[in-house]
Amino acid sequence: MTGPTHDEAHGGALGERLNWLRAAVLGANDGIVSTAGLVVGVAGATDDRSALLTAGLAGLLAGSMSMAAGEYVSVSTQRDSEKAALAVERRELRERPEAELEELTELLERRGLSREVAREAAVQLTERDALKAHARVELGIDPDRLTNPWHAAWASFVAFTAGALLPLLAMVLPPADRRLAVTVVSVLAALALTGWSSARLGAAAPARAVLRNVAGGALAMGVTYAAGSLLDVAGV
Questions:
Q1: HSE-up of 6 (CA within 13 Å, CB side)?
Q2: Which whole number is the average pLDDT over 149-163?
Q3: CA distance 226 to 67
């Protein structure tokens, strides 16, 4: 038997899952770096557990809500654009079906089909579901799978929170004389993992991504710790 393999048939769904995984990894990475910078900065000024916990929780909540709100607005805008494009296409199919059929034929020709095969395919696709055919071929949109802003918002919220919990717990749970070391080691290890994961999901070389991620996190913690220490020395 000939035909698409299982992976080919579901290539779009696989690509969508990879995009969600990549977004989750990057959201967790943001949570790790921002919260680590915050709690390490506070640790430079004080070793009070309550102050560290309060600062970490505040940063976690503010960051996760900000990420969720940003994703909701961004994806809502994208969804509105997709709906508007589909509405235009629906109207054009109703008002000038022959011109739209010719347009679909030309689009299929550009993908490598001969004129005759492209015309026949366009006719069959139009008879089956004209809007879906034009949406997928012309607009790159699946009308049955429009982006969902709530899914994006919750995914960002959960990913950021999961990442932020690591430096927060690493800072407040160990004894005072080990907090900083445990936090730095834990954060750098987690950043190495998220750097490797994001590179693998993007089919890129992991070594450079890991080095860039770890260096960025180390720099962020170093700068905030120095700032906290200076504030402590200045008695602010």
A1: 0
A2: 90
A3: 27
Give the Å distances, CA to CA, from 198 to 18, 44, 180, 201: 10, 31, 27, 5
Q: Considering only 6-15, 34-43, 84-93, 185-194, which range has the smallest mean pLDDT?
A: 6-15
In this prediction, residue 21 has a pLDDT band, given cuts at 50, 70 and 90, of confident
Q: Are 193 and 28 in contact (CB under 8 A)?
A: no
Question: Looking at the predicted structure, is the pLDDT value of residue 223 above 90?
Answer: yes
Percent of the chain, pLDDT > 70?
Answer: 89
Q: Which residues of 181-209 are buried (b: 16+ CB within 10 A; e: fewer)?
A: ebbbebbbebbbbbbbbbbebeeeeeeeb
Give just the sign of the alpha carbon dihedral 134, 136, 137, 140. positive
Contact 34, 216 (CB under 8 A): no
User: Left, alpha or beta for 207 (phi > 0: left; psi -120 to 50: alpha)?
Assistant: alpha
Helix, coil or strand: residue 2: coil
36 contacts 188 by C-beta, under 8 angstroms:
no
Per-residue pLDDT, averaged over 175-203, amounts to 90
Is the CB of residue 104 less than 8 Å from the CB of residue 131? no
Mean pLDDT of the chain: 86
Decide: 146 and 155 in contact? Cβ < 8 Å: no
Q: Which two tokens stand for residue 73?
A: 């607005």
Closest CA to 201 of 32, 10, 25, 67: 25
pLDDT of residue 200: 84
Contact status, residue 82 vs residue 146, Cβ threshold 8 Å:
yes
